[in-house]
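Task card 7
Instruction: Convert sequence to structure tokens.
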Amino acid sequence: MNWNDYEYFTEEEFRCSATDRCVMEKYFMDRLTMLRIDYDRPMVISSGYRDHTHPVEANKLKGGSHTEGIACDVRCNAGIDSYDLVQLAFKHNFSGVGVCQKEGKSRFIHLDLRPRVAIWSY
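Output:
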């Protein structure tokens, strides 16, 4: 994948914090870019690719969509920014949307391209 094709994102922000590897799928990054263009605001990535050895993934029976390079978490404050991002995620056919907007926690929106539609809160 050529990261120079992505004006709004860098490989560094998608690297696994445990291994420094980055194996994002091009079709995911293309769709994320289209969402970013519609969103028309910066999107800060707090988690992108996660290796199977990443502490969050290592505790799972089966690695999640982050390990497949088809997911990311976007830092997002409560309010209109979060609402707009979730609404546009569905418009751009993201099938997995997780919302973490609780006070005192890291606020983010999880986006992925899993096989079945799912929405949840943390």
